[in-house]
UniProtKB/TrEMBL annotation, chain A:
InterPro entries: Adaptor_Complx_Large_Subunit, AP4_complex_esu, Clathrin/coatomer_adapt-like_N. It comes from Carya illinoinensis. Adaptor protein complex 4 (AP-4) is a heterotetramer composed of two large adaptins, a medium adaptin and a small adaptin. The lineage of its organism: Eukaryota, Viridiplantae, Streptophyta, Embryophyta, Tracheophyta. This is AP-4 complex subunit epsilon. Coiled coil: none annotated. Subunit of novel type of clathrin- or non-clathrin-associated protein coat involved in targeting proteins from the trans-Golgi network (TGN) to the endosomal-lysosomal system. Residues 687-714, 732-786 are annotated as: Disordered.
UniProtKB/TrEMBL annotation, chain B:
One of its GO terms (molecular function) is clathrin adaptor activity. Transmembrane segments: none annotated. Keywords: Cell membrane, Coated pit, Endocytosis, Membrane, Protein transport, Transport. It is a peripheral membrane protein. One of its GO terms (cellular component) is AP-2 adaptor complex. Coiled coil: none annotated. GO terms for biological process: clathrin-dependent endocytosis; protein transport. This is AP-2 complex subunit sigma. Residues 66-206 form the AP complex mu/sigma subunit domain. The keyword GTP-binding does not apply. Signal peptide: none annotated.
Length: 980, 207
C-alpha cells in the first residue's frame, strides 16, 4: 500500500501540477466543488475576490502568476460574481508579447466584456497590431476577440485588416476572418460592399472555410434569395461532392460525410428553391441522392434526413421527393425515440401544407405523441393539430387543447393555447351551441389570459344568433347560454372577463324565455356583484343587467319588485367612489320609476344588435342654439381656438364617453339621458365599430384599437358614419355560417377557409365515424384511441387505417429488438473502460478512507443513479455501471459504499461498513466476471484504439488524490468519463 | 407586444412562438424600408423590448439564426462553463442559468432532448453528471444541434483522453479555448475533430 501511495504521488508530481495550475487555485476549485450551500460558496468566492484584489494590484507579480490570477477571475465570474475590478488587468494582458499570456488575456476579455464596454477602446489598438502578426496563432486569437468585441463604431478600425486576412495562407485564419466579417455584416450596414467576398470564399479549397462561408451566405439569402439564384448550381455541386464523400475524411461524423455542411447547404437550397420551379429542378437529384444515402440509424443521419424534408417541403414540390419524405416521416414517427418522434411531428407539420393527406396514415402515431407525458412533444403535436384542423375535427382538437390547457400552470403557454382554441373555435365551430360551450370552458380555465375581444365576440354571437330569420333557434341558443351561465355563476373565483359576459347575457336574455323570474336573475346578479365587490367592471355590468331585467319587466307590464339586497346594493353604489358606478346606479333608479312607454323607448328588448342612427351634427339643437344666440349668448368657440373653455364645455360628454368605454360596450341605448337628446349618443356607437374585424385571427392589437375607437367617437362625424356603414355587413359573422348570400362575410365557414366542403360535411363525417366505431372490435388497437384517430383524421377509409395500424405494431416490435441488443453493448463498453482503469490502479491512499465525510452528507441523490450515462438508460447498463464503479473505487470501497448505501442512513458507522465490504467486493467481482466473459469479444476491438487510457486515467486519478480530491467526495461523477 | 426598431416601434401581434418567425419576416421588410444607411441593421442591432406584462418573454433577443449560449452544468446546477453569444446582463445570465438548469435536470431521460425556453429552444444532453445545454432558434434543426453537442464532447474526450467532469472543472479555460475553435460568433465554424485537436495541440506546445 505504502508503495502504491508513493507511485501515485510521484506520478502526480511528475506531471507538474498536472493541470498546470498552482495548488492554491486547485484548492479553490476543490473547495468550491465541495461546498454544500450557496452561502458557503459565496463566502469562499468573496474571500477569493479579496485575495485577488489585493494581489493583482501588486506591480511586480510574475507573468505566469498573473495569468493564473486572470483565470481565477474568469472562474469567479463564471460562478456569477462580479470580477470587474480585474477587467483592466485582463485587458493589459492582451498587450503581452507572449502568445500564451495574450491568449489568456483575449479569452478573459471575450468572456468579461460586452461589445459596448468602455474598455473595448483599449483593446482595439492591440487587436489591430495582432491582426498583422506573423504568428498565425496570434492572428487567430485576435480574430476570436474581434468576433465578440468589435462594435459598430470600431468596425472601420479593423475592417481592412480582416478583409486582407481572407487571403491568409492558413485556413484557420481565413475561416475566422469569414466569421468576423459575418459578424460585422450583422452589426453594421457599412460592410455591405464586401458581400462579394463571401461568394468568392465559397470556392476556397479548404472545406472548413467553405463551410464557414455558408453561414453569412445563408443570412444573405434569407434576406434576398433572388440575387443569389446564380449560386444554385454551385451549391448543388458542392452538396453533391459532400454527399459523395469527396471531402477529407476528418469531416466525417459518425460515418456521415460532413453532415453539418450538408445541413447548411440544404437549408440554403430550401431558401433558393422556394417557389422557383427552375431552381428547384436542379436540386431534385441531389436531394433524392441524400435521401437514399443517409443512414437512418444514427442521430446525425436523421438530422440530415430531417433537413432534406424541410428542403423538399419548401422548394417547388416534386411528387417523388414528397413520397420519399413521407416515408422518412413515417420512419421517424414509428421510432421509439422521442427525439425522432418530435422531428417526425415537426416534419409532418411542414409537409402537410403541401400534401394534406399524409397525416392520415400517421394518425395513431400522432395520437400517441399527443398522449405522451413529454410536454415538448405534446406541444409540438398540438402545433401539428392546429395546422390540420378542419371543421370535421375541430371539436376533438379543441377539446384536447382545452384539457391540456386546464392541466398546465405555465401561464405563458396557457395564454398561447387559449388563443389557439379561440381561433380554431371561431374559424371552424360546427354549431353555435358548441362554440358557446367551448368559450365558456376557455374563459373558466384560462380566465383573464383571454383577450377581451373574445368576450365581445361571444356576446355578439349570442345576441345575433345564427343571423338567419330563425328566431326559434336563436332563442334556444340564448336560453341554453343563460342556463349554462346560471349553472357556472355559482362557482368560486371566476375570471372577471367571464363574469362580464355572464352579467351581460343574463341581463339581456335572463328573463327572455320566461323560465326564470326577474327576481331569480337579479338575485344571482346581486350575488355576483357582492362576491366580486372589488371588481368595478363586474359591478357595472351587473347594475346594467339589473336595469335591463327591470326594464323588460316594466315593458311587459309587470310590477317591479326590487329585491331587498338589490336595493341595498344600488344604494351602496350610488355612493360609490367610482363615478361610473354612481351614474349607473342613479340611472337604474331613474329608469325604474319611468312608465312603460318611456322604458320601451329607452331600453327596447333584444335590441342590442339594432343600429342606432346618430345625428353627428346635432341638427336638432340648431333651433335652441339660434334662440340662445338671439338672446345674446356667446357664439361657440372651437376647441382649437379656445382650449381652456372647451374643456369645460366638453366635460359632460367626455364623461359619458368614459363611462361607455369603461364597460358598456354593447348597450347602445345606455345613455339616453337628458340633457343629451336620445339620438346623439355618439359614444355608445363606439363599441360596435370596435368589434368589426371578426375574421382577424389574433387579437393582441386590441388595446390599441380601443384607443382608436375611443378617439374615433370623439372625432368628426364623417369617419364614424363610414365605419358604421360597414358594420352591419361585417357583423354577419364570417365564421359562423350565416346565410345571407349578399355579403362575402356570411359565407359558410368551410369556404372561408378555402376548403370546399359544405356544412353537410360535418354530418357525413360523424356518420363515418359511427360506422367505424361499430367495427372497432376487429382491430386490436385500443378503441378509444381509434375513435380519437377517426375523429381527428376524419376521411380516411377503413382499410387504410387497418393497414397502418398493423404496420405500426410490426415496426414497434421490430424496433425493440435492436434496441435491446444495443443496450448491453454500450453498457459493457463503459464498464470495460473503467475496469481497465482499475486493473492498473496503484490503489491510492488508504488515508482517503478518512475523508468520506461527504459520503453521509450526500443529498438524497443516489450516486448510482447519477452514474447512469445518457447512452445507456436500460436496466442492464445500470447494473453494469454498478460493477464499474465498484471496481474503480475498490481501494476506497468503504468511502464509496458508505456513500452508496448510507446515503439514506444518516450516519455511517465504521463497523457496518466493514462488514459490508466483503459483500461489495464479491458482487463487484461477480458482475465484472460475467460481463467481461460474456462480452469480451465485442469490447476488445473498441478498447484497442484507446490503449493509452488506463495510464491517463491513472495519472488523473493519482493527481487529484494528491490534491486531496477524492472520488468518494460529493460528486462521484467528477470521475466519470463523459463518453461512458 | 411592442417591438422597437431603433427609433421606430411597431406593434407585433405575434405570439412568442410565432414571434421569431414573423419578426424575421417583418424585419426584412423594415430593413428594406429603412434602407442601408439607417443605424439599424438586421440581426444584431434589433433589440426587442417586450411590454412587461409578458414577463416570461422579457429576454432581449437578437434576430437571426445562431447559437445564443452554451451552458455546462452539473446536476446540482453548478455552472461548469458558460459562453454567451448574445450580450446579456449579469443578472440576466444568472436567471438564464437557473432556469435552464431547472428545465433540464428533472426531465425523464426518455423524453426529447429539446425544451422550450422563453422564445427559444434549449437542446440539452446529459453526459454522466454533466448537462450540456445549447440555446438555439425555435425553427432550427434540433437533432443537428444535439449532435453538435456530442461532437463537442467527442473533441473534449479526445483532447483530455477520456474526459471526465473533473477535467473540465480544473481546465475550464482550456475548454473555453476549444469552444472558441468549435463555435465562433454563434455559428459552428469547424466540424472537423482533427482540425480542432491539431490547433489545440499547437497551443498546448507553447505551455
Amino acid at each position: 500500500m505504502e508503495q502504491l501511495k508513493t507511485i501515485g504521488r510521484e506520478l502526480a508530481m511528475g506531471s507538474q501540477g498536472g493541470f498546470g495550475q498552482s495548488k492554491e487555485f486547485l484548492d479553490l476549485v476543490k473547495s468550491i466543488g465541495e461546498t454544500r450551500s450557496k452561502a458557503e460558496e459565496d463566502r469562499i468566492v468573496l474571500h477569493e475576490i479579496e485575495t485577488l484584489k489585493r494581489r493583482i494590484t501588486d506591480p511586480d507579480i510574475p507573468k505566469r502568476k498573473m495569468k493564473e490570477y486572470i483565470i481565477r477571475l474568469v472562474y469567479i465570474e463564471m460562478l456569477g460574481h462580479d470580477a470587474s475590478f480585474g477587467y483592466i488587468h485582463a485587458v493589459k494582458m492582451t498587450h503581452d508579447d507572449s502568445l500564451l499570456l495574450k491568449r489568456t488575456g483575449y479569452l478573459a476579455v471575450t468572456l468579461f466584456l460586452n461589445e459596448d464596454h468602455d474598455l473595448i477602446i483599449l483593446i482595439v489598438n492591440t487587436i489591430q497590431k495582432d491582426l498583422r502578426s506573423d504568428n498565425y496563432l496570434v492572428v487567430c486569437a485576435a480574430l476570436n476577440a474581434v468576433c465578440r468585441l468589435i462594435n459598430e463604431e470600431t468596425i472601420p478600425a479593423v475592417l481592412p485588416q480582416v478583409v486582407e486576412l481572407l487571403g491568409h495562407s492558413k485556413e484557420a485564419v481565413r475561416k475566422k476572418a469569414i466569421m468576423a466579417l459575418h459578424r460585422f455584416y450583422q452589426k453594421s450596414s457599412s460592410v455591405s460592399h464586401l458581400v462579394p467576398n463571401f461568394r468568392k470564399k465559397l470556392c476556397d479549397n479548404d472545406p472548413g472555410v467553405m463551410g464557414a462561408t455558408l453561414c453569412p451566405l445563408f443570412d444573405l439569402i434569407t434576406i434576398d434569395a433572388n440575387s443569389y439564384k446564380d449560386l444554385v448550381v454551385s451549391f448543388v455541386t458542392i452538396l453533391k461532392q459532400v454527399a459523395e464523400r469527396r471531402l477529407p475524411k476528418s469531416y466525417d461524423y459518425h460515418q456521415m460525410p460532413a453532415p453539418f455542411i450538408q445541413i447548411r447547404l440544404l437549408k440554403i437550397l430550401a431558401l433558393l428553391g422556394g417557389g422557383d420551379k427552375q431552381a428547384s429542378e436542379k436540386m431534385y437529384t441531389v436531394v433524392s441522392d441524400i435521401f437514399r444515402k443517409c443512414d437512418s440509424s444514427s442521430n446525425i443521419g436523421n438530422a440530415v434526413l430531417y433537413e432534406c424534408i424541410c428542403c423538399v417541403s419548401s422548394i417547388y414540390p416534386n411528387p417523388k421527393l414528397l413520397e420519399t419524405a413521407a416515408e422518412v416521416i413515417s420512419k421517424f414517427l414509428k421510432s421509439g425515440s422521442h427525439n425522432l418522434k418530435y422531428m417526425g411531428i415537426d416534419a409532418l407539420g411542414r409537409l402537410i401544407k403541401i400534401s394534406p393527406d399524409i397525416a392520415e396514415q400517421h394518425q395513431l402515431a400522432v395520437i400517441d405523441c399527443l398522449e405522451d407525458p413529454d410536454d415538448t412533444l405534446k406541444r409540438k403535436t398540438f402545433e401539428l393539430l392546429y395546422k390540420m384542423t378542419k371543421s370535421s375535427n375541430v371539436e376533438v382538437i379543441v377539446d384536447r387543447m382545452i384539457d391540456y390547457m386546464i392541466s398546465i400552470n405555465d401561464s405563458h403557454y396557457k395564454t398561447y393555447i387559449a388563443s389557439r382554441c379561440v381561433e380554431l373555435a371561431e374559424q371552424f365551430a360546427p354549431s353555435n351551441h358548441w362554440f358557446i360551450q367551448t368559450m365558456n370552458k376557455v374563459f373558466e380555465y384560462a380566465g383573464d389570459l383571454v383577450n377581451v375581444k373574445v368576450a365581445h365576440n361571444l356576446m355578439r354571437l349570442i345576441a345575433e344568433g345564427f343571423g338567419e330569420e330563425d328566431d326559434a333557434a336563436d332563442s334556444q341558443l340564448r336560453s341554453s347560454a343563460v342556463e349554462s351561465y346560471l349553472r357556472i355563476i355559482g362557482e368560486p373565483k371566476l375570471p372577471s372577463l367571464f363574469l362580464q359576459v355572464i352579467c351581460w347575457v343574463l341581463g339581456e336574455y335572463g328573463t327572455a324565455d320566461g323560465k326564470y323570474s326577474a327576481s331569480y336573475i337579479t338575485g344571482k346578479l346581486c350575488d355576483v356583484a357582492e362576491a366580486y365587490s372589488d371588481d368595478e367592471t363586474v359591478k357595472a355590468y351587473a347594475v346594467t343587467a339589473f336595469m335591463k331585467v327591470y326594464a323588460s319587466e316594466i315593458a311587459a307590464g309587470r310590477k317591479v319588485d326590487m329585491l331587498h339586497e338589490c336595493q341595498s346594493l344600488v344604494e351602496e353604489l350610488s355612493a360609490s367612489h367610482s363615478t361610473d358606478l354612481q351614474q349607473r346606479a342613479y340611472e337604474l333608479q331613474a329608469v325604474i320609476s319611468l312608465d312603460k312607454h318611456a322604458v320601451e323607448n329607452i331600453l327596447p328588448s333584444d335590441a342590442s344588435c339594432e343600429d342606432i342612427e346618430v345625428d353627428k351634427n346635432l341638427l336638432l339643437l340648431d333651433n335652441y342654439v339660434q334662440q340662445s344666440l338671439e338672446n345674446g349668448a356667446q357664439p361657440y368657440i372651437p376647441e382649437s381656438e379656445h382650449s381652456g373653455l372647451s374643456n369645460i364645455s366638453n366635460f359632460r360628454s367626455q364623461d359619458q364617453h368614459e363611462a361607455s368605454i369603461h364597460g358598456l360596450r354593447f348597450e347602445a341605448y345606455e345613455l339616453p339621458k337628458p340633457p343629451v337628446p336620445p339620438r346623439i349618443h355618439a359614444a355608445s356607437l363606439e363599441p360596435s365599430t370596435e368589434l368589426v374585424p371578426v375574421s382577424e385571427p389574433s387579437y393582441s392589437r386590441d388595446t390599441h384599437q380601443v384607443e382608436t375607437a375611443a378617439s374615433i367617437s370623439d372625432m368628426g362625424s364623417s369617419e364614424l358614419k363610414l365605419r358604421l356603414d360597414g358594420v352591419q355587413k361585417k357583423w354577419g359573422r364570417p365564421v359562423y355560417s350565416s346565410s345571407s348570400p349578399s355579403t362575402s362575410n356570411s359565407t359558410t365557414p368551410n369556404t372561408v377557409n378555402g376548403v370546399t366542403q359544405v356544412d353537410g360535411a360535418v354530418n357525413v363525417n360523424s356518420k363515418t365515424r359511427s360506422t367505424r366505431d361499430s367495427r372497432k372490435p376487429q382491430v386490436e388497437i385500443s378503441p378509444e384511441k381509434q375513435k380519437l384517430a377517426a375523429s381527428l383524421f376524419g376521411g380516411s377509409s377503413q382499410i387504410d387505417k387497418r393497414a397502418t395500424s398493423a404496420n405500426h405494431k410490426v415496426t414497434k416490435a421490430g424496433i425493440h429488438a435492436p434496441e435491446k441488443a444495443q443496450a448491453p453493448k454500450a453498457a459493457v463498453v463503459s464498464n470495460q473502460v473503467t475496469v481497465e482503469k482499475t486493473n492498473h490502479q496503484p490503489s491510492p491512499d488508504l488515508l482517503d478512507l478518512g475523508e468520506p465525510t461527504v459520503a453521509s452528507t450526500t443529498p438524497s441523490v443516489d450516486p448510482f443513479k447519477q452514474l447512469e450515462g445518457l447512452l445507456d438508460p436500460t436496466q442492464i447498463s445500470v447494473t453494469a455501471n454498478h460493477g464499474a464503479v465498484g471496481t474503480t473505487e475498490s481501494p476506497d470501497i468503504i468511502g464509496l459504499y458508505g456513500n452508496a448505501s448510507a446515503s439514506g442512513q444518516s450516519s455511517s458507522s465504521e463497523i457496518s461498513l466493514t462488514t459490508n465490504r466483503d459483500d461489495v467486493n464479491f458482487t463487484v467481482g461477480l458482475v465484472d466476471a460475467t460481463v467481461s466473459t460474456a462480452h469480451a469479444g465485442t469490447t476488445l476491438p473498441t478498447q484497442f484504439p484507446k490503449g493509452l487510457n488506463p495510464r491517463d486515467s491513472l495519472e488523473k486519478d493519482a493527481l487529484v488524490r494528491h490534491m486531496g480530491v477524492t472520488p468518494s467526495s460529493q460528486n462521484p461523477n467528477l470521475f466519470r468519463d463523459l463518453l461512458g | 407586444m411592442r417591438i422597437e426598431l431603433g427609433h421606430r416601434s411597431f406593434v407585433c401581434h405575434a405570439h412568442a412562438l410565432d414571434f421569431a418567425r414573423n419578426l424575421f419576416a417583418s424585419c426584412i421588410v423594415q430593413r428594406l424600408e429603412l434602407n442601408w444607411k439607417t443605424k439599424l441593421c438586421l440581426f444584431s442591432s434589433i433589440e426587442i423590448h417586450l411590454i412587461p406584462s409578458c414577463s416570461l418573454l422579457n429576454f432581449p433577443l437578437i434576430i437571426g439564426r445562431m447559437i445564443r449560449f452554451i451552458l455546462l452544468q452539473n446536476r446540482q446546477g453548478k455552472t461548469r462553463l458558460a459562453k454567451y453569444y448574445v450580450p446579456l446582463e449579469d443578472s440576466e445570465k444568472h436567471k438564464v442559468e437557473y432556469e435552464v438548469h431547472r428545465l433540464v435536470v428533472n426531465r425523464d431521460p426518455k423524453f426529447t432532448n429539446f425544451v422550450e425556453f422563453r422564445t427559444h429552444k434549449v437542446i440539452y444532453r446529459r453526459y454522466a453528471g454533466l448537462f450540456f445545454s445549447l440555446c438555439v432558434d425555435i425553427t432550427d434543426n434540433e437533432l443537428a444541434y444535439l449532435e453538435c453537442i456530442h461532437l463537442f464532447v467527442e473533441i473534449l474526450d479526445h483532447f483530455f483522453s477520456n474526459v471526465c467532469e473533473l477535467d473540465l472543472v480544473f481546465n475550464f479555460h482550456k475548454v473555453y479555448l476549444i469552444l472558441d475553435e468549435f463555435i465562433l460568433a454563434g455559428e459552428l465554424q469547424e466540424t472537423s475533430k482533427k482540425a480542432i485537436i491539431e490547433r489545440m495541440g499547437e497551443l498546448e506546445k507553447l505551455e
